């Protein structure tokens, strides 16, 4: 599959140079983060037009490569072998380009020399592809019989196929319309990339970015999202001087007539047609990591120049890309595509992807490794995003804590089953209670009798288990309590997510350390024995991993310390952190 950006007006202009440089920078960053994206870029031109071609392999294991090429393309050229017909790979190509909203598709039915340049083999392939494409909602599809051996119907019309009276491949590419940024392509938008305050002109405050969609003009009323503040464009500044109007694809800096509060990550919209703002969405996600996508896990979501924390709600389905079936799924593996709900930590400006790629596409980033793990497209905002609002409450956390004469916090004990977490947590709470502190103990086994009784022990269920416990612990901290949590919590990502729910000084991670051999000897519940016999699956330390804390706030070696000594160490840590009095 070859995806092309084609626009003779934009190639070579300052805006186009910036736009394309950003694409290349993004690919380079993904390579630095350990993601291999085998996309070959080629540049060529004719008398009528200049082209950038992204050539991506189309096998199932390279879905993420196809996604990378398709995400910025105006047109797709799908190559089909005339001697083999429309294959599973062809259907995958069609599905990916349709998924990413490419409206113009050329099907190059190649190797016509192997079928004696016959019309019937071409018609058979054409009908197969059109039938599948129609199920995808693709309407603008052109089939062209070609042969790479001598260039038949590639540039020059073939004398060996007199029955074909359509365009050649190059004629098609030269005439196809571009919709990537130039002209009146939807309402005007601009992500704020930076706020410019030059030392030489202290009064100048420019909002730099690249225009998306339509046109921005001086004197035009605009709205700043997500804040909703209104303003009016005073100047449009470029390296070559001021402009009265800037169109899609141009890199500019705008100034506003009033001193409006605007920051990097805000979206400038025309006032009469602004983008939406929401914090819950239905989205399509293409997974690009060896580690599976797990519902309930927190990721960083990058849309435009804005970043927010996103939690993946349970998957609705994954897409059987070869058959277009909706397949039930609890997680996404590498190269799989699924539809799910996303819950964000803050409201963001957006357009549905079908309206705008620039304000409807996003990437997901692993919070621990900062690797790009997924690419997504916003389908629509969920209604509850506008119908559920945060209710202001008069009594704040500080007031509740003051009445208890303590600083609220989470004391999170993590370690293998049998390491001694519950014993130590119970001793810590008894010591705090004797001191007069207000506490509550959340234990892994206890919460599974009620709050989390519907969850099992798969990786996805473990993530959801900790997510729910974290939200409960956060509420208890808001109530002014010292919350002691005793959970295996095997994944670093989830422990980090809990830490991020509260203030930086309100979380103490305690690693209750014991070797697997010692933990098994202490196991009075017989769980390790069941796991060894295969009677208990997904058991941490046996057939499910435990990720040791890298820098815990407190490290307790329970092979050397007694439970009482461990509890004393935790109390000492709380005193040193200023969370309780000495």
Report on the structure:
This protein has about 575 residues and is of the alpha+beta class. The chain has four domains: about 1-175, 3-Layer(aba) Sandwich (Rossmann fold), CATH 3.40.50.300; about 190-270, Elongation Factor Tu (Ef-tu), domain 3, CATH 2.40.30.10; about 275-385, Elongation Factor Tu (Ef-tu), domain 3, CATH 2.40.30; about 400-575, P-loop containing nucleotide triphosphate hydrolases (Rossmann fold). It is built from 14 helices and 28 strands. The strands form five sheets. The chain has a six-stranded mixed β-sheet, sandwiched between helices. Strand 22 (about 360-365) and strand 23 (about 370-380) form a beta hairpin. It is flat, with a radius of gyration of 29 Å. The termini are far apart. The relative contact order is 0.08.
**How many distinct domains?**
4
Tally of DSSP helical segments: 14
Q: Sheet bearing the most strands, described? A: 6 strands, mixed
CATH topology description of the largest domain? Rossmann fold
**For the terminal residues, how far apart are their CA atoms?**
68 Å
Which structural class best describes the helix and strand composition?
A: alpha+beta
Mind telling me the CATH class of the largest domain? Alpha Beta
Relative helix content: 25-40%
| Overall geometry | flat
Q: Could you tell me the number of beta strands?
A: 28
CATH-assigned homologous superfamily of the largest domain = P-loop containing nucleotide triphosphate hydrolases
The whole-number mean of residue pLDDT values reads 85
Return the CATH architecture of the largest domain: 3-Layer(aba) Sandwich
- The residue ranges in which pLDDT falls below 50 over 5 or more consecutive positions are 5-37, 180-184
Into which percentage range does the β-strand content fall? 25-35%
In spatial order, strands of the major sheet run 2-3-1-4-5-6
Output the radius of gyration: 29 Å
């Amino acid at each position: 599959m070859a995806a092309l950006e084609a626009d003779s007006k934009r190639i070579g202009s300052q805006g186009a140079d910036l736009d394309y440089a950003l694409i290349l920078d993004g690919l380079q960053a993904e390579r630095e983060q350990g993601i291999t994206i085998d996309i070959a870029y080629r540049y060529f031109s004719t008398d009528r037009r200049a082209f950038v071609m992204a050539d991506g392999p189309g096998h199932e294991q390279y879905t993420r490569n196809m996604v990378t090429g398709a995400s910025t393309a105006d047109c797709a050229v799908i190559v089909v072998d005339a001697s083999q017909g429309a294959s599973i790979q062809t259907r995958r190509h069609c599905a990916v380009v349709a998924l990413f909203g490419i409206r113009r598709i050329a099907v190059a039915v190649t190797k016509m020399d192997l079928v004696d340049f016959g019309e019937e083999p071409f018609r058979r392939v054409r009908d197969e592809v059109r039938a599948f494409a129609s199920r995808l909602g693709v309407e603008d599809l052109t089939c062209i019989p070609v042969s790479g051996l001598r260039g038949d119907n590639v540039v020059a019309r073939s004398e060996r196929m007199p029955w074909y009276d359509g365009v050649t491949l190059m004629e098609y590419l030269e005439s196809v319309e571009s919709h990537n940024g130039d002209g009146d392509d939807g309402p005007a938008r601009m992500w704020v990339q930076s706020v410019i305050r030059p030392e030489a002109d202290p009064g100048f405050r420019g909002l730099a970015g690249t225009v998306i969609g339509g046109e921005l003009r001086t004197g035009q009323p605009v709205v700043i999202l997500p804040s909703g503040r209104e303003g009016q464009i005073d100047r449009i500044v470029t390296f070559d001087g001021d402009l009265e109007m800037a169109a899609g694809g141009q890199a500019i800096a705008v100034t506003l007539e009033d001193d409006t509060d605007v920051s990097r990550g805000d979206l400038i919209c025309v006032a009469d047609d602004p983008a939406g703002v929401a914090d819950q969405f239905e989205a399509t996600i293409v997974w690009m990591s060896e580690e599976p996508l797990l519902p309930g896990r927190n990721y960083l979501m990058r849309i435009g120049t804005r970043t927010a924390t996103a939690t993946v709600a349970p998957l609705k389905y994954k897409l059987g890309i070869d058959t277009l079936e909706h397949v039930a799924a609890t997680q996404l593996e590498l190269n799989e595509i699924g539809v799910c709900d996303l819950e964000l930590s803050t409201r963001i400006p957006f357009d549905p992807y079908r309206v705008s790629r620039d304000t409807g596409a996003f990437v997901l980033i692993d919070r621990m490794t900062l690797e790009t793990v997924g690419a997504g497209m916003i389908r629509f905002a969920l209604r509850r995003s506008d119908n559920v609002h945060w209710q202001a409450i008069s009594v704040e956390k500080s007031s509740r804590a003051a009445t208890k004469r303590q600083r609220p916090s989470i004391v999170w004990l993590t370690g293998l089953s049998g390491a001694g977490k519950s014993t130590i947590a119970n001793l810590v709470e008894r010591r705090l209670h004797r001191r007069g502190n207000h506490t509550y103990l959340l234990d892994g086994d206890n919460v599974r009798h009620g709050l989390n009784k519907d969850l099992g022990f798969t990786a996805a269920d473990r993530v959801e288990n900790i997510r729910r416990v974290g939200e409960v612990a956060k509420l208890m901290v808001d109530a002014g309590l010292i919350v002691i949590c005793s959970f295996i919590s095997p994944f670093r990502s989830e422990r980090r997510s809990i830490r991020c729910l509260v203030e930086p000084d309100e979380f103490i991670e305690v690693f209750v350390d014991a070797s697997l051999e010692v933990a098994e000897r202490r196991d009075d519940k017989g769980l390790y024995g069941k796991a060894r016999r295969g009677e208990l699956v997904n058991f941490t330390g046996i057939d499910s991993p435990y990720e040791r804390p890298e820098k815990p706030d407190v490290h307790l070696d329970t092979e050397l310390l007694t439970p009482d000594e461990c509890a004393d160490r935790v109390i000492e840590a709380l005193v040193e952190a200023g969370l309780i009095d000495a």
